Amino acid sequence: MVFFGKDWFEGGFLGVDVFFVISGYLITRIILSELQDSGSFSFSTFYERRARRILPMLFAVILASIPFAWHGLLPIDFVAFSKSVLTSIFFGSNFFFYLSATEYGADSALLKPFLHTWSLGVEEQFYLLFPLLAIAAYRYFRRYFLWIVVFLSVLSLMFAQVMEVRDPDMNFYLPFSRFWELAVGAILAYRELYFKTEKSYFLGLLMPVLGVFLIAASVLFFDGKTPHPGFYTIIPIIGVALVIGFATVDVGVGRLLGSRSLVGVGLISYSAYLWHFPIFAFARMGGNVEGNYDKLLLIFSTFLLSVVSYFFIEKPFRNRFSMPIKRLIGILGVVGGGIVVFMFYSIYSGGLWSRYSVPEQEMLKGMVYYEYKALKHPEGKKGELFLTHGLSDGCNMRNPEDACRYGNEKIVFLGDSYVGHLERAFVDRIRPLKLGFISFNYEQCPFVGDDLWFFRAECSVVNELRRDIIKNFKDRKIFIVSANEGQFLAAKRRTDDPIGDGLKRRSDGDLVDPSIVWESYFNSIRWLVESGHKVVVVGTIPPTWLNGNKWLGDNVKYLASMDFPNVYNPSSPSALNAQDDSRYPIFDSDSILMIRPSDIMCDSASDHCLDVKENYGPLYSGGGRHLSYLGAALIADSVIDSLLKNGWIEN
Asked: Which of 461, 562, 446 is nearest to 514 (CA)?
């Protein structure tokens, strides 16, 4: 929430870390107490308690979310939603979100209703493995139990610190990167059971206050740029440990935490955890989170639903008398099985296309893909992906030496995703002209010098390979060149190991002044011309923050008749043209054509650009500047008209 121009709660994600410590404390206390009292541990009873606590509410939130997903998610998003639901049921959503390249905290991540279940996955993976480890250590190495946990905790923390540099996304989602947080709770439980000391009034008053201060300071001052989890995360974890380790029920923080109101909040905390993210995600999809008032309203809704859920779902299912084990298994089996079958069907059907009429389906086919990834080889020929070496019939991110090639290869697409989102519409239009193509489309790798990279370190090598291949072309080509100019601000010098650093998703490096990048871009264009080729340069795409897919999902009513209204964004074509005039040189060559998207996608009379074109449709497929098929088609038509007019191709 924003106050005085600053979001003071960006560190709210640390609530998960606090939860992990508490969770590790509780499970270890349960296991060791039972072993100490009876000499054995009942796995069946333990996992029955987990099932009673976890599954009924999880299933309830999933069932409540399905109607909103049905109404608000387009097919590709419904498939992703279904996969996230399935993996959350089987407690593997942390791996799903990592493998689907979901950056936690990014704007796009806030629209994934079950993203928060990654932490439930980590916790349950811990609950599956830790009891086995704890029981084995207790029975066979009892004297060294604490040291085993401490050793694994330190090893986990060191691993997290290393992974934060090498692969921050994997580090965030990986269970072993979080084990040390759970292990801190385990150490606290062991200390409490086996090192019984008289509680100090002074320490019981002071230490929990210090702990609360450390947690609060972390929540207020950590943000998305804070390396996490890692050494910085020690600060809030120490805070939690001080509260758990020293708080007493009759003084200070302990007394406050034991008050009836906060105990009540604790009782509904699991329901609140499950409800909050879907509520906010679906509200954002509907554009209903504009300011603090909207957020407070959603928080109140979460609280209200959580109270109702606790009394009508959680309590009845936890009660063994009102919900005996056979009835529990029957209900969970039927409901869970139904959800699983429905989600598998939605994935198999490609996102439940039957929700739409035939005309609506035709329109949606141009909207439901990430357009910069949409082009596939026309004959299905597979090629090697550059970093992973996997095979794909898609043209995006291939090894340049194994690029998509088709027909007479007259047209060459060269650049990053801003060339990629033009390709499919362009190919549809040049094939009737009997023109083939080569696709050198690689995300976040515009065609600049091979001494530069932006967000993918391997771009240096990608551009080196592109240049070597182009040098060996025997005939003259027409290059379609475009770039995400915004990333020029983040340019870095080539690393010593571009491919290795690309695999590690390295993000740091020696920054380069943007003016050097622009000149490198222009020199690369001139080099193409000097090599005997012709070049079409597609300039600045008008910016928008409208999510075209979401807008279309909310306005399906326009699909049947195609009577779309004009929807404008604040971008000014005159300002964009002035910006291009100041950025781009006057290329003194008949072999270069400059295309201004602002002349095509904007209304000069109102001096505003279009998000949605009247009687046509949305021009963007997501926020930022990535075009939909419809937007790309406008650019492609304009380029082809210019090529015909200048005699570069024949009709």
From this structure: 446
